[in-house]
Write a structure and sequence with these properties.
Largest sheet: none
Oligomer: single chain
Radius of gyration: 25 Å
Number of helices: 15
Distance between the termini: 48 Å
């Protein structure tokens, strides 16, 4: 009997220890995100090193203090695409014989000969930049795997994992709304950017947090639903989260980011249809197909009204610029996309190296001659250029699984 009690106490102590490890891991991930916000969105590349260091410590702490049977089961459709993406970028950094480089990337071989390099070389045209991006990509993959582990361990409180992102999103939204409607001139309000330097990066954070806040509100409401009763507590919590959604949507429109605002509305439409039909199924067990279709149409109608009524005139004018030619668009993105096409032809299979768009684009660049163009402002185009056709397939499979 005493042996059994000792075993039970030992098991409880181990459980409590693992529980503390989980909370410390979540705290480190939250600190990494918070550091990025405090450092103005990581404007300088070396600033991300602090966030990557926190994520690395969290990963070491978690996997060193948990047994294999306590971790989430390995899902090859989730982990292998992310691992393959890291391996592909590492392959771009590996020294290869000149003949193999000429076979895989003739343009890279031509640049090497022009620089007087005749021996082994890498596929990346700027290895230092690719190494830096590899570390950042590794931090992102590690964050995804740790979030997956925490969600698997905390099945009944999985929302605790995304709660920091929602809280930071609400705080940034409040700051952005204050910047636009309280601190800027009424006749020409500033574009909201929160603690970020780039308003598009600021809008991307809100674009991620917005659907999560909506899903959390619906989840809380569903969890507290009782047939033939309407409890007030879950309704109040859900209403508060929906209010946070409204605040983030207002901040998104104030940021004047066209694609982020449109992407947020598309995510709201998708989450709204899923949420409404799920609530209908819970209430009516199951909901008729016609009722679900009506609910879906109603969601799309509401989202369409938001697209018409919410954007300020400054954002509407920016959408109007898309109807003109590339010279009328202030950021000249159409010109960048058009001049990036030759880069695809120059590095079709293996790409020019992750993070090397700016270096490779200099040879083809004519747009915005007085400014740096370090990004293509199109994720799919830039991935195709930097990672090639093979890397694009791996990247798409990774994003689809995540």
């Amino acid at each position: 009997m005493q042996v059994r009690i000792n075993r039970l106490q030992t098991a409880r102590s181990i459980f409590d220890y693992v529980g503390r490890v989980l909370w410390i891991t979540l705290f480190l991930l939250t600190g990494a995100l918070g550091a990025g916000l405090i450092l103005k969105g990581g404007t300088l590349p070396h600033q991300w090193n602090w966030s990557i260091l926190a994520v690395a410590i969290a990963g070491i702490l978690y996997w060193a203090n948990t047994r294999s049977r306590e971790r989430a089961p390995v899902d090859r459709w989730t982990t292998w695409p992310a691992t393959a993406l890291l391996a592909w970028v590492a392959f771009q950094l590996a020294p290869l014989p000149a003949g193999l480089v000429a076979l895989l990337s003739p343009m890279r071989a031509e640049l090497s000969l022009a620089a007087g390099v005749t021996g082994w070389t890498s596929l990346s045209i700027a290895p230092a930049e690719t190494l830096s991006r590899l570390l950042e990509l590794g931090g992102a993959v590690l964050t995804f795997l740790l979030a997956r582990e925490l969600c698997w361990r905390w099945k009944r409180r999985a929302w605790a994992v995304v709660a920091p992102l929602i809280v930071f999103g609400v705080a940034e939204a409040f700051l952005g709304v204050a910047q636009t409607y309280l601190l800027s001139p009424f006749d020409a309000p500033f574009a909201a950017n929160g603690t970020y330097v780039n308003k598009n990066h600021y809008a991307a954070l809100l674009e991620m947090a917005l659907p999560l806040a909506l899903a959390a509100g619906v989840s809380i409401y569903r969890a507290g639903f009782v047939p033939h009763r309407r409890p007030a507590t879950p309704a109040i919590k859900a209403s508060a989260l929906l209010g946070c959604c409204a605040l983030m949507l207002a901040a998104l429109s104030a940021s004047q980011s066209r694609m982020a605002f449109l992407g947020a509305l598309c995510s709201l439409a998708a989450m709204g249809v899923i949420s409404v039909t799920a609530v209908e199924a819970r209430m009516y067990r199951p909901a008729p197909l016609g009722r679900r279709l009506i609910a879906g149409v109603a969601v799309f109608a509401v989202v369409g009204m938001l697209f018409v009524l919410v954007p300020p005139k400054e954002l509407i004018e920016r959408y109007g610029l898309l109807a003109g030619n590339g010279a009328e668009i202030g950021d000249a993105r159409l010109g960048i996309w058009r001049e990036s096409i030759p880069m695809i032809k120059a590095y079709p299979i293996v790409g020019c190296g992750l993070g090397t768009f700016e270096s490779g684009f200099m040879r083809f660049k004519r747009v915005a001659p007085m400014f740096r163009v370090d990004f293509a402002h199109n994720d799919y185009l830039q991935i195709l250029i930097e990672l090639g056709a093979m890397g694009l397939v791996i990247g798409l499979s990774s994003s689809a699984e995540s």
